[in-house]
From TrEMBL:
Entry's transmembrane regions: 12-34, 41-59, 71-92, 130-156, 163-183, 189-211, 223-241
The protein's name in its UniProt record: Probable membrane transporter protein
Entry GO CC: plasma membrane
UniProt superkingdom: Bacteria
Membrane topology type: Multi-pass membrane protein
Subcellular location: Cell membrane
Main localization (coarse): membrane
Family label: Belongs to the 4-toluene sulfonate uptake permease (TSUP) (TC 2.A.102) family.
Keywords: Cell membrane, Membrane, Transmembrane, Transmembrane helix, Transport
InterPro entries per the UniProt record, alphabetical: TM_pro_TauE-like (IPR002781), TSUP (IPR052017)
Amino acid sequence: MILTWFDTCVLIGTALFAAFIGSVTGGGVTIILLPVLVVHFGIQVAMLIVTLALLAAGASRVTVYRSELDWQVVFWFTLGSLPLTCAGTYLFTIAAPDLLTRILGGFLISAVVCQRLFTQPLSGFAVAWFLPIGAAFGFLTGISAAVAAILAPFFLGYGLRKGAYVGTMGFNILIIQIVKLAVFGNQDFLPPSVLLYGALLVPFMIAGTVLGKKFLERVSERLFVMIIEVIMILAGLNFIIRGAA
């Protein structure tokens, strides 16, 4: 599919805004970017492009917040997530698009509920718990890239804040996207058009991350979270309706 200049500008602007929000809050990239991609490309191609965008976002967050990463969390989370990411991503390549759309919608709405239920830090939360958390998240994100928000209560519960929260989550998401791209490539799910549009968004994802860091301590995180939650609910309902149509 060849996009018009207007549609291309809309995608670029959305990617820049999504990366900025993600750099400030640690999430929201998929929630903001994916609905726009779905409108233009459909659910399966959109998920492939957003994987490339998340790869760029994760790499840029690791670079920007590298001095604040929690390497223990990275180790345990990655250990659990790698094998299950392969399984979930393979399921994505063989599942029906309408089913994926409904699953995505359910995840978006569930993420808001989880974030509202777990607003306080969790007590007695050992770092080794990130092994099963990583495993569960790896499988879910293999099916749907829009589940990053469900990690928020666990990362916050462990005590990660600001740059440590954003950077550590960014590193884990970066590793997962590399695994997903390897599976997609093995299943011949990365045609040149997908790579082209994904590459188009990369510099704007990086720019958004850099801008987000500059405003991290100045902008109200609560306001951004509220905006993201509204977008998640609306997009989730939209995807559920689309999948049932």
